[in-house]
């Protein structure tokens, strides 16, 4: 997944109605920054604080643990200062991700439920996913570019925008919405691809025993296939130290990206 930006607030976002993840833990801080931007920095004692001090205040105020909810966009309201994205929280029912086909179908649905449902309607192999609306709604402000003539002295680096994410995948759902619960690896984030009792075959992850392969479900199919190619390349030989180090770094980066 990646951050939703102001440039992404286009009409096709409402047409596709993708599933987004909203980090609600950062919303109070965003409100604070908006207040400071609108009031403190345009004159007054608070506006005299150096930028570095404000950066430290905001950095220390950021929550340690994100709290994500799934939302769908319902409206975009532009203004002179930026755009307001209106969303409704939803409860997802994506099933148990039994095999590769279900994972790939779910990820197509997450990008555009409306398009997926239209394409699958009447199909003999239709895989159904559901999203139930809740009563919780959110309005997320995306600031635009502040003209230099406005007199505001708010540094761009003080903007807190990292709370809405798009391009959601199944590993993102497992990590951020399902507490990391994975039926394939049971939370280990890796598997022995030859000793899973048939699980690996369901995701095209099967290969010889004695290896530690990134889990195809909670680490992602694409990431698993890349890791599998590495293990197959050096199945009979010890990999060069630099390539082994690079693989270890990729694994750590993926763990960090998913919050494991």
What's the short version?
By secondary structure, the protein is of the alpha+beta class.
What order do the helices and strands come in, and which of them pair?
Layout: E1 2-3, H1 11-16, E2 20-23, H2 27-40, H3 51-61, E3 68-78, E4 82-93, H4 100-111, H5 113-120, E5 130-143, E6 164-166, H6 170-177, E7 190-191, H7 199-202, E8 213-214, H8 221-233, H9 241-258
Antiparallel strand pairs: 1-6, 2-3, 2-6, 3-4, 4-5, 7-8
Labels describing this entry:
260 residues; 6-stranded antiparallel beta sheet; alpha+beta; 9 helices
How many DSSP-defined strands?
Answer: 8
Q: What series of H and E elements makes up the topology?
A: EHEHHEEHHEEHEHEHH
**Relative helix content:** 25-40%
Largest sheet: 6 strands, antiparallel
- Sequence stretches where pLDDT stays below 50 over 5 or more residues: 146-158
Mean pLDDT: 86
Taking Cα atoms only, what radius of gyration do you get, to the nearest Å? Answer: 22 Å
The outline comes out as globular
Broad structural category: alpha+beta
Side by side, the strands of the main sheet go 1-6-2-3-4-5
Proportion in β-strands:
15-25%
Query: Tally the helices: what do you get?
Result: 9
Gap from first CA to last CA: 15 Å
